[in-house]
Amino acid sequence: MASSQASESSPASILLFGSLEASPAVFVTTGAKLALDRVDREGFVALGSLGGQRRREGALTRDTAVGAVVLGYQWFPGWGVVAAYVGPEGSMEAVSGCGCARALPPRFGLRLHGEVWAHPTDATLFTATLVTGTTRMSAWGRLAWGYRHWDAYLGPEFAFYGDETGYRKWTVGLHATDFALGRFHVRLSAGLQIAGDQDPGPYLTLSVWTPW
Q: Rounded CA gap, 141 and 155, in Å?
């Protein structure tokens, strides 16, 4: 997470964040970013996160928990923020259904995480995020563009997720990013999801972050 989404100046050294995606599959993530100096300055940063997902696979249900602690560096060119991280990740999975349940062995691997939050103009925001992991051979990416309206950036977004199970998910929708609710900053997204052999359906994503 690139320093309060490249739009906020804060003296804090910790940024807390969380997100929820509601769709035929449910994804939840929470975590924190710690800077040696301040989250709005160039330098070394650490990012810790814990997430979970539940999705249907035919007659079965797969529950997954994934955690990671990555270290990296963030740059502040005049047009935005660029951040890159690397570090260990671990995952646990359980499969249930048809009157049985099975827990899979824990797995550990490496995570790579990169983000760009750019302001091509004072009134526009472009974001690109890519997160890959070796524990489940997974990849998640998101591209979004927005124009400033009513104290938020509004525009289209596209995201993709895939892993070694063969599961693939694409989402296309609209987002409102960086509007304030008290001390919290919020991003709300909604649109159409296409996942595996499922029929296309709606998705809704809520992301929240705040300096601490």
A: 17
- Distance, in Å, from the CA atom of 134 to the CA atom of 88, rounded to the nearest integer, reads 9
Q: Which amino acid is at 192?
A: L
Of 112, 108, 105, the residue nearest 133 (C-alpha)? 112
Residue type at position 25: A
Range of the domain at 170: 4-211
- The CATH number of whichever domain residue 139 belongs to comes to 2.40.128.130
Quote the number of domains for the chain.
Answer: 1
The pTM assigned to this predicted structure is: 0.88
Query: Around 105, how many Cα atoms within 13 Å sit in the side-chain half-sphere?
Result: 2
10-residue mean pLDDT series, the chain (212 residues): 50 90 89 91 95 83 93 95 98 85 91 97 96 96 96 96 90 96 94 85 96 87
| Beta carbons of 47 and 15 less than 8 angstroms apart | no
**Residue 4 carries which DSSP code?**
G
